[in-house]
Amino acid sequence: MAQKWLLASALLLLAVFTGQIQGQMTAEEERLVNWVLEEGATLRVTIGRRPDGVRGLFTTQAVAKGDLLVYIPDHIVLSVKNVAASEAAPTLLKELHVPCSRLRPYLDVLPKENEVLTGYNFPVELRWEWPYDAAACWLIAGIDLGPGEEVTISYGNLRSDDLLLYYGFLDTQTSPPRLLAVDHPKFKPYESEELVDDPHLAGSPQDIEGEMARLRAVQAAVEERLAALGPVPDHIPYVAGLMRALHEQRRHAIRHELERLQVLLAAALTID
Predict the structure, then answer these.
(1) Are residues 31 and 138 in the same domain?
(2) 16 with 141, same domain?
(3) Which residues are the signal sequence here (predicted)?
(4) In a domain, 38, yes or no
């Protein structure tokens, strides 16, 4: 999923950009919309502002669950279907410095520093559908939407390490933080199974003690590894800040899970 570089996704990225409080699109936004329409796109959304000034996408008509919201022809999509995966990012960076780039309508609406708002578990679930052999990609509504309703995307039930790996931000709204995917007892490398928390852990006191021992070993290994690596360098402040926050979330989540398991163990021993 991290390999899909969608030029037309700028329309959806606008949903998390900060913008001025206005009721109409900027010239750059109008240029983007006109460009994708001229290239054969279908849009049942428009760019607008929420009352708090955040720029977003809003439906232009009633849309039923499963209906098309956005259709983007393949020839204006930058993806691993037409650019090698290893060349996708370099190609985009190169185009940024070409004044007459054919991608200019898209490039001109990319966010500047401090203009991106990140969230978690948006209320409206949508999905991109993009079969490898199709000549387009499209966005499908996950619920019924009325005219003028805001369109957002759910990233799914992902944990902070997956969110950082695939999307570049952390889950900062779940409190206490959940165990990272790599620390979850059901984590399996190279598998994309969704890891769901089980607050009512079933099992004997021995099972609970075994999980606590596993987590303590993870905790010790994490601290040993971080001590060996030393402080996170500040060459790229934003990335350094994310890594420090991830490390602290990981510590907090493990401590909290150990405390939760201790309560479960005490209750299990009392019952026995």
Answers:
(1) yes
(2) yes
(3) 1-23
(4) yes
Host domain of residue 173: 160-271
Q: What is the pLDDT of residue 12?
A: 43
The residue with tokens 């479960």 is: 264
Looking at residue 111, which CATH number applies to its domain? Answer: 3.90.1410.10
Q: Do 180 and 96 lie in a common domain?
A: no
Distance separating the N- and C-terminal Cα atoms of the chain? 47
Task: Name the band, by pLDDT with cuts 50, 70 and 90, for residue 254.
Answer: very high
Q: Are residues 144 and 241 in the same domain?
A: no
Question: Do 170 and 136 share a structural domain?
Answer: no
Question: pLDDT tens digits, residue range 7-56?
Answer: 334 444 443 333 333 357 889 999 999 999 999 999 999 988 888 777 78
Distance CA 193, CA 33 (A): 37
75 three-class SS:
helix
Contacts 24+ apart (CB under 8 A), 20-27: 20/49, 20/53, 21/49, 21/53, 22/49, 23/48, 23/49
Inter-residue contact 6 to 72 (CB < 8 Å):
yes
Q: Is the pLDDT of residue 257 over 70?
A: yes
pLDDT digits (tens, 9 = 90+) for 212-247: 999 999 999 999 988 887 777 777 677 778 888 899
Distance of alpha carbon 156 from alpha carbon 140, whole angstroms = 15
